[in-house]
Amino acid sequence: MLLSWCASRSRILLVQPFCKRLLQTEAQKVGSKAIKTAERTHLSPKLLIEQKHAISRRLFTEEEDEKLLDLYKRYPKQWSKIAYELSERSPAAVFNRYKSLTSKEVFYGPYEAHEIQALKDLVAKYGEHDWVTIANEMPRKRDPLLLRRTWKEALDPQHKRGPWAEKEDNLLMTAIPKYHLEGNRVDWDGVAQDVGTRNRKQCYERFMYQLNPSHTKGPYTAKEDAAIITAVAKYGDQNWQKIKEVTGINRNTRSIFAHYKYYLDPSIDRSPWTDKETTQLIELFKKYGRMTTVKEKLNSNRSLKHMWAQYHVNRNGLRERRKEATPIKKTEKVPPPRTEEDLQRENL
User: Fold this and answer.
1) From 331's CA, which of 33, 83, 274, 323 has a CA 20 to 30 Å away?
2) Residue 120 binned pLDDT confidence (cut-offs 50, 70, 90)
């Protein structure tokens, strides 16, 4: 109300100095908060102010979860510093995410059939907004944010799964310029609304990993691998934007991070799984329901991605069934019988 009053044409000349002082005061407040935070985290106030305008509210990825847990070991309870290292995350979001990841009361394992049906029924009853109430009435206690994520990404009937149609790709590429924001950002909620059949995450990943003409796709080359390893040795494994710039690799930072984390990082154990290790993995997961806890109990250097893959392949004896399966015998192709025309051609 005050700013609208200041903007009134009849009073603009009288209150212009006052409005200017008001805006300066607000700017000083933001700056003072950044300075106080900088004193606690030893970071630049300018960087903190710039980061304030680049906060992301998208769901945490698996890579961010791993990085968050690693950063907490280095900076216990220093949420501002952890948020800065993660980039595009507020201290409050980092704190809440860490709390949900480390809570022993909440179950994080795969959904069972009765849980999926219960989630569908509760969403039909309460709608897609009251996730706390839905979480309280679930058969097994789960994090409300993860319930929302599961619904939006896997169960929401208005969103398609599977391969994209050409029409959807055209709608996506048409909507992106329409919802382009300052700072090379995109309103993915608006894009998803225009596409109509996909959620915001699907739209983002489809463009960033498949359709973005400025990014290279496909397998990494040996030259790219060598450049990444050299850059990480020099700059560390935290600032992936810097690594992208110095290597000159024309890929997105998430792709570079994931490639290093799962294929190049020398600290990751990629040796073949033993039967004993696999058995312990399955038993501990059944007991604790969280793969991060299983990793701590096993004191394993394997990545969470590889542990999840090993669990899903072996939990139902899939690998054993494949070994015991009778191989299909290849039958020799029998040529079709020759006709009279074929015989005449041979005689000629």
Assistant:
1) 323
2) very high
